[in-house]
Here is the input.
Amino acid sequence: MGTRLYVGNLSFNTTEGELQRLFEQAGKVTSCNIIMDKFTNKSRGFAFVEMSSQDEANKAIATLNGKEVDGRALTVNEARPREERPRGDFGGGGGREWRGGDRRR
Here is the structure.
């Protein structure tokens, strides 16, 4: 399994093909995904690129972090695992207390 990189500060016009060609300068790219907004279907300005080895990932970070692409300086670093966030409970205290309780006493 390769090493996954986070690529931030992307221009909204950058395509996956352009990004893949850029990272291929550092080594073999096994996947390239620009993250899209699910409502507007436009780029969210960041991507994940997976390099086939740690050495190639290190080379990509060294050569591409700060490189200007489409007028924006890229942020390239090793991706961290996604943090698990609780779903559904927004900490409002829930139920009757939050709405002022039951007033029909």
Notes: The helical segments are 16-23, 54-64, 95-98. The chain has one domain: 3-78. Residues 95 and 101 are 8 Å apart (CA to CA). The chain is about 20% helix and 30% strand.
